[in-house]
# Entry
Amino acid sequence: MDKIIIHGGKRLEGDVRISGSKNAALPVIVSSLLTDGWNIIHNVPDLADIRTIKRLLSGFGAEVEGGKTLRVNAGGITSCEAPYDLVRTMRASILVLGPLVARMGRARVSLPGGCAIGARPVNLHLKALQAMGAEIDLRDGYVEARASRLKGAKIYFDISTVTGTENIMMAASLAEGTTILENAAREPEVVNLADVLKGMGAKIRGAGTEVIEIEGAKTLRPVEAGIIPDRIEAGTYMIAAGLTGGDVNILGCRPDHLDAVTTGLKETGMGIIPIDGGLRVVGSRDVTSVDVKTLPYPGFPTDLQAQMMVLMSIGGGVSVIKETVFENRFMHVNELTRMGADITVDGNSAIVRGVSGLRGAPVMATDLRASASLILAGLVAEGTTGISRIYHIDRGYEHIEKKLSSIGADVRRVKG
Ligand code: UD1
# Structure
């Protein structure tokens, strides 16, 4: 298995360009299932999760061509089954459920099963489809859904769910009548999808707020669409710049999607300055410890919690990091501790006492964002860090070692 080897202690300097958002690209690609004809999607990142969704759509019989500009035609799909082998590698596969039932009247999707970052159920997706008239059965580890035509409904999400909101927004776009989603997720990725669905002919109001209203259409037309920049990738490189006392231009990002991150990082002492085409991020010699609480957007993203914890590990005081979105999202703590960090977990909080420096060590990635945190720790650690199980990082960071090398990091991938 491949490994990433990092010799720490290099100051990062220069320009890094942010790729298209994984979490926006996945639902937008899936939304092609709602139409008959060629959809053209620009700025699609080259990632393992994107390859998984392409395989899933091809398995249904859709034609899928291209890379960064992707063309998808789901006109001739014949299968409505998402098999376990693909779904287990990527939970977001559940996104196909709503569009398939809406367009084909049926779908059979493997349940995603356990996940390293907590239970992560899909009950809210299912409850919402039932409210729209779908018959749902759970059999042999699969969700089977049927409906001759979904009907608009008023749906209240008990918990703000990103893929839940996206799944139902897609289903509602082909449903009869109007669907109202309350306590909907407000993430920019939801807005990106809503814009694409509007281009297809659905009438959607309120995306980006807690209440979204979708007026379904009988048929939708194919679109040409773009993917927003990845705010989590941008935040990761911002933290990398801060950790190494660097000076990095984060180009092609959307600063307005990064407000909570920018606020939090500035409190640690980092300089973050808007520039043409992005943000200039300047690290400070002394990192101030701050408390962090993850929240749904527009709050501080859970997908940057592990990376922020690395920065707090070298802070000047004590930081309390509270994870409120997922249970059990602290698997990176043990590995960071092996690199010399002083972190105690108490329920859904981690108490991080700043230390004067981290030390390189062999470590193991456990999930996507945890692996990003280990790379960041390696950048600032003294000596050599070897990270194994890096297939996790390839799910969500495009060409990470190339991008980091181009701004001065000593990082390489070794084939194993
Ligand atoms: C999405 C993102 C992921 C991010 C997460 C939170 C994608 C592809 N993935 O994941 O990177 O970390 O949002 O910002 O966009 N929940 C339920 N029942 C459900 C659905 C969710 O209880 O039916 C709970 C989850 O267990 C979790 C919370 O709701 O505690 C939020 O999860 P959700 O927003 O659904 O996360 P994902 O959409 O899976």
User: Anything to note?
Assistant: Residues 22-226 form a domain with the UDP-n-acetylglucosamine1-carboxyvinyl-transferase; Chain fold (CATH 3.65.10.10). The chain has a mean pLDDT of 96.
